[in-house]
Design goal:
By secondary structure, the chain is an alpha/beta fold. The protein is built from 14 helices and twelve strands. The radius of gyration is 20 Å and the shape is globular. It holds the Pfam family Glycos_transf_1.
């Protein structure tokens, strides 16, 4: 039972499962920890994405208590949120807008819209997500606030002398665009001794993973790619420390936590100019942005990075000089804490 002073933070089951790490799960866990560090009582409630499971959780929350719920769970039970809207104070954390995905089912889009509209507040993770919530989901502007993901303090990346260590972080899935990356690297060729490490779950979309591997093999660059799978925090930190460049070839992206983490470490970025990525990049001039789903242009940017020492030096210096300007998890938690305090 959650008391009226405790924030019930409702998250998808398996939020701490190392085999299912995603940007959303990292956000949920880091935010919960940072709220507790600020002194906010938090009870993290893991729940399966079904109406019955969500109903059990809300039935256990006392009148007037604050609730923060992950959007993935909220869309599973819009009836529940609507039924309890006048009894508890609910904020929905919108990591992404389902309608942004080309293959999204209409019933999922509709359910998510109802969940968002029934909340007292919707927390968006980027300005882009906020615009989508207002323009496409019909959420009133005054009910949507932006809280960008934070970053952890981290040392500067060591990198390599020739800029050859490329890193791509994100679950291996169509919206993350690793197939675009492989095609771009095929165009770069093998004259330069580059190597790309792809970090992220390969369990969510096996056919796509197989497709990416097949394209790499046919392109003759299979030995230049490493699929590292999900890494724990220590091993992920090691991957960042060895990287010269982080590549984010996403087709859809609400923010780009891996981009922010890279820049926090002084690592430049080549990424798609899509969604919330420009906000994650910021104004430091430490990134090259290309249109999404354009392997030719992505390959051109990667080729320039690998062959132009002056470009590498400029981008790296800019990343290192602005790395401390990235938002922290403490700052993100402070904003969410204020939102929770003001829920009505």
């Amino acid at each position: 039972m959650t008391d009226a002073a405790t924030l019930a933070f409702v998250v998808p089951r398996g939020v701490d499962d190392p085999a299912r790490v995603s940007g959303g799960s990292v956000f949920d866990r880091r935010l919960a920890d940072a709220l507790v560090a600020r002194g906010r009582p938090v009870r993290v409630v893991e729940v399966g994405a079904t109406p019955a499971a969500l109903a059990d959780v809300f039935d256990d929350i006392p009148d007037g208590a604050p609730v923060l719920i992950d959007g993935l769970v909220a869309r599973a039970g819009p009836d529940v949120l609507e039924r309890h809207a006048g009894r508890v104070r609910t904020a929905v954390l919108a990591h992404m807008v389902t309608a942004a995905f080309a293959d999204a089912a209409e019933h999922e889009i509709s359910a998510e819209r109802r969940a968002f509209r029934s909340a007292s507040t919707v927390i968006a993770t980027s300005d882009w997500t906020q615009r989508r919530l207002i323009d496409d989901e019909g959420v009133r502007r005054e009910r949507v606030v932006v809280v960008a993901p934070g970053t952890d303090p981290a040392p500067v990346s060591l990198g390599t002398p020739d800029g050859a260590a490329l890193l791509c972080v994100g679950t291996v899935a169509p919206h993350k665009g690793q197939d675009v990356l492989v095609e771009a690297l095929r165009g770069v060729g093998t004259d330069h001794p580059w190597h790309c490490t792809i970090v992220g779950s390969v369990e969510g979309s096996p056919p796509f993973v197989a497709h990416v591997r097949t394209r790499a093999r046919r392109a003759g660059i299979e030995d230049r790619l490493s699929f590292a799978g999900v890494l724990d925090r220590a091993h992920l930190e090691r991957a960042y420390r060895r990287a010269d460049l982080v590549v984010a070839p996403s087709r859809v992206e609400s923010y780009g936590m891996a981009i922010a983490e890279a820049l926090r470490r002084g690592i430049p970025v080549v990424a798609s100019d899509v969604g919330g990525i420009p906000q994650a990049v910021g104004v430091g001039g430490a990134a090259l942005l290309v249109p999404p789903d354009r392997p030719d242009l992505l390959g051109r940017a990667l080729g320039a990075w690998l062959t132009d020492p002056g470009l590498r030096e400029r981008l790296t210096n800019r990343a290192r000089s602005t790395r401390r300007e990235r938002p922290t998890w403490s700052e993100a938690a402070a904003r969410v804490d204020a939102i929770v305090a003001g829920l009505s």
